[in-house]
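S.,

Sequence below, as promised.
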Amino acid sequence: MPLPCQRISLNPTARCNGTAQLWCVPARRTRHVRFNDLKDPEPIPRGTEFSSIIRSDVPIVAQHTRLDSRQAENALLSTVAYPSRAETSV
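The prediction came back faster than expected:
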């Protein structure tokens, strides 16, 4: 049985085309992804604003945490998203 797959699309605001990363994660497991560490197909340039879209071929709960370390007074933001009832696909 194939593993459920999640896709994170990163879209820098300075250009229209974004990049997509794909992970397959077993059920009831977590995958920790640091956006700063993404290199393939290309890294996100530091200091670039971007948006992210998380999609999955099965219902998942996604937690997105962002640490803004651009200044001495760090800011931490965390958001949890639950699946909707609407059918979606990767």
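DSSP finds no helices and five strands in the chain.

Coffee later?
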